[in-house]
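Task: encode each sequence below as structure tokens.

Item 1
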Amino acid sequence: MAKLGQSSQRAEGNTVLDASFFERDTVVVARDLLGKLLVRELDGQVMWGRLVEVEAYLGPDDLAAHSKGGRRTPRTEVMFGPPGHAYVYFTYGMPGVSTS
């Protein structure tokens, strides 16, 4: 993800993605996420980052996925649930985010 930006203004014309956005082919969703903004408002402060890199993991059959072989742990359980939820993990000391 690109560096975080801070702004007190909201961009016009932006919409929140609903679950149906994520209820599609994984590779298509990954491509469509490129360039999208992640926005968080906390204590009146708006923070955002643009998605500049994404990866598409294809579930339990994908040997690169943390869910490979159907491995279910409290940490990976979100990947087995409904679409549109984030799976946050650390890699090389940096946060990573996957969506289910």
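Item 2
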Amino acid sequence: MPVELKGVRETVKLLRKFEPESLKSMNKEIRDVMVPMRNKARGYVVAAGDPPGNMYNWSMKAEGTKITAKTSTFRNASDSNRPRLFPLYDAQEASKGIFYSQAPSKRNRNGYRALYWIANATASGAIFETAGRKAGSAGNAGGRSNNPEASSQFIKRMGPLYGDRQAERGRAIFRVWVEDQGKAQDAAIKAIEKTINGFNRGTYGLAA
């Protein structure tokens, strides 16, 4: 999904300084492409009681009593051996947690930043998006649950992952990206390149 387009950060800095209106126009073009994708991704967040798997054990006890932060069976230990609570699943919160940003992201493990990106700000939403990427539908063996199939059942209840590459598979944001087949990405790159070319024809020179 990520595409390295060299010179974009430098472009944004120069536009902000010399051509702020051009920057606004470029950002609007990209936003008009990305926001519909964000909205579509929000629609793919599954409610706890909906198919494919009715994830009641994540948000509710089987008998219907709401799990609290203190009674959650998913609580585990942090590195400091203090209780760390597994986030409870709230579909509405997870859906609203999907956001679009034009601010530079934190650097990833390869040292790259994203300038125009969609992500989920909630812990439960991030789990819903990516659970099973590494372990697959079989889940992880050796968990703390008395049920040896707990990990597999937990993952399967969320439905399939979409995408080909392991690090780029998901159920909401990444699903939208797969279905879009690169159209939004191409449109964003086109908007950036158009702005760079227009800037190059202006008073200030800029190398793409």
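Check on item 2: Helices lie at 8-18, 20-43, 56-59, 91-96, 123-130, 150-156, 173-180, 183-200. Residues 1-5, 60-64, 203-208 have pLDDT under 50 and may be disordered.
End of task.
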